[in-house]
Design brief:
The chain is α/β, with parallel strands linked by helices. The protein contains 14 helices and 17 strands. The chain folds into three domains: about 130 residues, Rossmann fold; about 160 residues, Dihydrodipicolinate Reductase, domain 2 (2-Layer Sandwich); about 90 residues, Alpha-Beta Plaits (2-Layer Sandwich). β11 and β12 form a beta hairpin. α4 runs parallel beside α5, α7 crosses α8 and α13 runs antiparallel to α14. It starts with a strand and ends with a strand. The chain binds L-homoserine. The site of L-homoserine has 11 residues, from α7.
């Protein structure tokens, strides 16, 4: 048997401790699978004195993760600190600089510096592995990079943030407000330290940036992603979606268009019968449309200690076996620059909720403005608010579903609708994603 693979782990939060436990539990199996023992020999975290309910005595302790990363005591550095800058970045750079393989769960670091880090790993002949950075326990990185080599991918999309899916699920199933559900997600520990990272869509966008590169063989470009969060979703939208045969999900979507690759994160109406619509709570899902396999959906836990540790340990096992694949499938020099399709050119159906003053001519004016931009309506529903019968001039919800059109036409038509003065509030617009 080969000598042990000596591992250093930086970051001893929920995931870090789960990795230590899992490596212990699977020690014999991993040695058999990889042909060598895998042994954590050193750790680093912010506070040595903190009670973690875990005996760290047997590991060498480093206060500075970058020092651990470059230490001759280890062969492989596992970064579970998080954050695109600061200690995480310094430590990963130090490890690669010292010629050590790296396993990381850090989506922000990879989305921002993935190309530079991958190039450095290639130059040093070491591995940079990040299965845990996208959708936690779902093996989507390996699927895109290795298992779908026989396919050209047209679209990859998914529910990549458990916090948002939890909030949208509870709003729908219990008719709770957005704020109530967010507070509950925070209490249960699903949300990031700054929840705006989850609900504003940035967490999903970082994960999507990585998936886009793997799916399309392109350079990562997080700036090319159009991002909208779920803050504006109200119970009125959730209810309307249910009535119209849809469910609202925060999706990250990357698809090939004639203009290039479109990358977008936004609340989305998905058909209620679709696989992705069935994914509830903190669960994640990723769907891939590709020419040979047609459609593939992977569903599983996107966060949490053991699920994320499962992905980290899989990467460690690959490295113990001696696997050194280019991190993004192709060598960095062979990745194509990302040709960005702007969101203004997006084509698809739209859900529009308007708060319309109930006056003669209002609906006709709206329909005329839509027709002026060649927007064909699949349905138009005006609702009566309970108790509003007497208030003729009160604003009532009007919901439009359009046939396929484009983003620019929708915005221009709605600008004119607003200018006509029949609207009491900013229109709510939610893109519909085809199956
Ligand atoms: N806050 C993230 C989520 C954790 O809710 O999915 C995993 O990135």
């Amino acid at each position: 048997m080969l000598p042990p693979l000596r591992v250093g782990v930086a970051g001893l939060g929920t995931v870090g401790l789960s990795v230590l436990r899992l490596l212990d539990r699977r020690s014999a199996a991993l040695a058999a699978l990889t042909g060598r023992p895998v042994a954590v020999v050193a750790v680093s975290a912010r506070d040595r004195a903190k009670d973690r309910g875990f005996d760290l005595q047997r590991y060498i302790w480093f206060d500075d993760p970058a020092e651990l990363a470059a230490s001759p005591e280890i062969d492989l550095f596992v970064e579970l600190i998080g954050g695109a800058e600061g200690p995480a970045r310094a430590a990963v750079e130090a490890a690669l600089g010292a010629g050590k393989s790296v396993v990381t769960a850090n989506k922000a670091l990879l989305a921002n510096y993935g190309m530079t880090l991958a190039k450095r790993a290639e130059d040093k002949g070491v591995a940079l592995a990040f299965e845990a950075a996208v959708a936690g326990g779902i093996p989507i990185v390996k699927t895109l990079r290795e298992a779908l080599a026989g396919n050209a991918v047209d679209r990859v999309y998914g529910i990549l943030n458990g916090t948002c899916n939890y909030i949208l699920t509870r709003m729908e199933t219990e008719a709770l407000s957005f704020a109530q559900c967010l507070a509950e997600a925070q209490r249960l520990g699903y949300a990031e330290a700054d929840p705006s990272f989850d609900i504003g869509g940035q967490d999903t966008a970082y994960k999507l940036a990585i998936l886009t590169s793997l799916a399309f063989g392109t350079m990562i470009d997080p700036e090319a992603i159009a991002i909208e969060g779920i803050e504006s979703i109200s119970l009125a939208d959730i209810d309307a979606a249910a009535e119209l045969g849809y469910r609202i999900k925060l999706l990250g979507v990357a698809n090939r268009t004639p203009a290039g690759i479109e990358q977008r994160v936004h609340p989305t109406m998905v058909p209620r019968s679709s696989a992705i619509a069935q994914v509830m709570g903190v669960t994640n899902a990723v769907s891939i449309d590709a020419d040979a396999v047609h459609e593939l959906t992977l569903i599983g836990p996107g966060a949490g200690g053991d699920a994320t540790a499962s992905a980290v340990v899989a990467d460690i096992a690959d490295i113990a076996k001696g696997q050194r694949l280019p991190p993004f499938g192709l060598p960095v020099a062979a990745l194509a620059p990302l040709q960005r399709a702007p969101i203004q050119m997006h084509e698809g159906g739209y859900y529009i909720r308007l708060s319309v003053y109930d006056r003669p001519g209002a609906a006709a004016a709206i329909a005329t403005r839509m027709a002026g931009y060649n927007i064909s309506l699949e349905s138009i529903v005006q609702r009566r608010r309970p108790g509003d019968e007497a208030k003729h001039a009160a604003a009532v919800p009007v919901i439009l579903i359009t046939h396929a059109t484009n983003e620019k036409s929708i915005h221009q038509a709605l600008e004119e609708v607003v200018a006509d003065g029949f609207i009491a509030e900013k229109p709510q617009v939610i893109r519909i994603e085809r199956e």
